[in-house]
Structure formats: C-alpha cells, structure tokens
Specification:
mainly beta; ten-stranded mixed beta sheet; ten-stranded antiparallel beta sheet; 1 helix
Length: 377
C-alpha cells in the first residue's frame, strides 16, 4: 500500500505596502518641470451654411475666426449637402484644395499644394440622388513638394502685401454633374459650389518655460547652445556663447584683451521675421522686427577675471518678447516662405539683416508658437 505524503504550504505574510506616489510635491519639495499627457483637442461647435445655385452646404463642428470656418491640425470637415434637380444629377464629388496665390499687376499665378477628392454619390442605373448627402473629409498634415521631392508641413492660411501680394488659401468645392434638358439630355454640365476655409493650426510649446534652470545649471539639457565667433580687424570679438530657451536669453561675452567695450549696451537681441516670395528665377525678401529684447549683466553671476591672457568673461541675462501678435508660424513652399530668427547684433541696433554687417550679427532659426502652454493633464 502506497502512502502519499501531504505537502504543507509555506506560510504567507502580508506584503509590505507600496509607497504613495503623487504628482503633487510634498512639503519642502518643488516641481521643476512636467510634461502633461496629450489629450484630444476639440475644434469647436460652430456651423456655417452656404447657398448657391439653389443648393445648400452646411459645415459643422468647426471654430469661427474672422467670420470664416476655421480648422486646426489634421481636422476633419463634417457637414451636409442638399442638391436640387435630384433626378438629373449624375454624380456629386467633394474636393478639398490648398493653393498658394501670387497676385501681380498684370497676372495672377497659383500653385497647388494638394487636391483631395471624395465621391459623395454616383448614379447607378435608374437611381435618384438623395436630397441630403453627408460629407466628411480631413486636412492632411503634410503636402508633397515635388520640386525638391520632400514632404513639408501644410502651411496655414495667410495673406501678405509685402514684399509682394500673396496668399495661402484653402477651399472646399462641390462639383455636381447634371444632365441637360430637352434635346441635349444625353450631355452633362458641371455646377460648382465653393466654400473658402481657414486652416490655422494652434501651435503651443510642449511644456512651460522653466523658471529656475538658469540657477541650477549653466546650460540645461532643454536649452540650445549657439557658439558665435567673430573676427574683424582690431575690433575682433571671439568666443561668445548663446544659451536660449523660450523667452530667456543668457549671453556670455569674452572680449579680447585689447578691446574695450565703451557702450553700455554692446549686445542687441531681437526677433526677426523674413518673408520670401519667389517668382520664376527671381525672389523678393521682406524683413520685419517682431520684438526686441532687453539684456543686462547678470547680478547673480560674478565677473571673473582670468589671469591667463588677461581676458574677461561676462554673463548677460534678459528676455525677448513679441511685440506683435503671432497669427501663424513659419512655413516653406515653392513660391512663398516665412522664417523666424532670433538675432544677436553687436553694437548695431535692431533692423533688417541687410542693414547689419555680417560680421556683427548672428541669426538663429526658431519656430514661434501661436498660443501659450496649457496644462491638459
């Protein structure tokens, strides 16, 4: 007879409780920086109705800016279309287009960014077009630049007068194919209905601007460092380093031993927008100052005198703010290009880059945001 031994289970004791975790700092702690979780963005709840050729088009779920239906990044256009003469309709096509238009005195040139079509209805045997057609079509995030074979961010809607009259436009078109009446019943004609849209993505910084990094680190990982070296005869200045994040600028100036800075404000910092219009083989450039900065020797950083070579290092702190509203960010197309720069100028006051000697200015490409940071966590 075989006897099975009963195995005893080991003793179990309650586990040690897990520590409490919280995004709220405890007493004596300070939150330096936090990246919020991305949440869906709600476009809006406005509705627009267009009527043309006895037909009606209604757009829903968009926001309103300057009396025009406005859409954001990769937004979807929703609505309904009500045709007329339904028994004569052969097909209904929805087309979303983006174009760059250059207006001259004698002619107007248009460059198509993209064209996206969707069939809303097509006749099948003896079917009749419905009296209400729902529609839905989305903006693409990018368009294809065939000239340089690359994908570029879709530019926002805008219009300018300087240096040349130009605009970026978007339109939603309804193309209806109808049969003719009487003897020409077999032939068809097109009836078009267009609604002009505003494409204006809201650009926000990914996180708020830190307020204490400049005191914690000489150069934070989130900052961009630029080395600016210049040399021009006896007034040579070399070894300047720029560290900039958002609106805060830290400047380190290292003059040569035989150079004396006789001015109280040797460094000028400003924001510059450069708009380029290309027509054929020529291009026209317009530059405007969006805002100026104020910098001064940092009171928290002592001036260190280096015995070797008798050089001196100074730290400069300050801020640069936009003095004009930023409606759209920079973009690139074949015919129209907008770029933004953070410019440092030595001695020469803010102005167009062509008015400042190249040896005395340093332009850093930047991307400006249109809206402030929002905590969506």
């Amino acid at each position: 007879m075989e006897v099975h031994k009963i195995m005893e289970l080991p003793d179990y004791s309650p586990s040690t409780p897990a520590p409490d975790y919280s995004s709220t700092p405890l007493p004596g702690e300070k939150c330096i920086q936090r990246t919020p979780r991305q949440t869906p963005y709600h476009n809006g709840n406005c509705a627009f109705t267009y009527q043309e050729h006895s037909m009606s088009l209604t757009l829903r779920g968009c926001r309103e800016e300057d009396g025009v239906p406005t859409f954001g990044l990769c937004s979807t256009i929703h609505g309904e279309f009500e045709p007329t003469d339904n028994d004569r309709i052969v097909s209904v096509v929805l087309r979303l287009e983006g174009r760059v238009v250059l207006k001259g005195r004698s002619q107007t040139k248009a460059y198509t960014l993209f064209s996206k079509e969707r069939s809303l209805w097509e006749r099948n045997e003896s079917s009749t077009c419905p009296s209400l057609l729902p529609l839905s079509i989305s903006f693409p995030a990018t368009y294809r630049d065939n000239h340089h074979d690359r994908a570029l961010r879709l530019p926002p809607s805008m219009s300018i007068r300087e240096p040349h009259r130009a605009a970026v436009t978007y339109s939603l078109n309804i193309i209806v194919q109808k049969t003719r009446c009487g003897l020409f019943a077999r032939k068809t004609r097109e009836v078009c209905m267009a609604a002009y849209l505003c494409y204006r993505p809201r650009v926000r910084p990914p996180r708020p601007s830190p307020t204490c990094f400049s005191g914690l680190k000489h150069c934070s990982d989130e900052w961009q460092e630029e080395i600016w070296g210049m040399s021009k005869g006896p007034s040579a200045v070399g070894g300047e380093a720029l560290v900039a994040q958002c609106h805060t600028i830290v400047e380190h100036l290292a003059p040569r031993p035989d150079v004396a800075l006789e001015t109280l404000n040797p460094i000028h910092v400003f924001l510059l927008r450069q708009t380029t219009v290309r027509t054929g083989d020529s291009e026209i450039v317009h530059e405007e100052v969006l805002g100026t900065g104020t910098i001064s020797p940092s009171p928290t950083t002592a001036i260190e005198t280096i015995v070797q070579e008798n050089t001196m290092t100074m730290s400069w702190d300050g801020e640069v703010r936009c003095e004009r509203p930023i409606v759209h960010t920079g973009f690139t197309t074949v015919a129209l290009e907008v770029k933004d720069f953070l410019v440092l100028s030595l001695i020469v006051p803010p102005g167009p880059l062509k008015s400042i000697p190249s040896q005395l200015q340093h332009a850093i490409p930047i991307r400006l945001v249109t809206h402030p940071w929002v905590d969506r966590s």
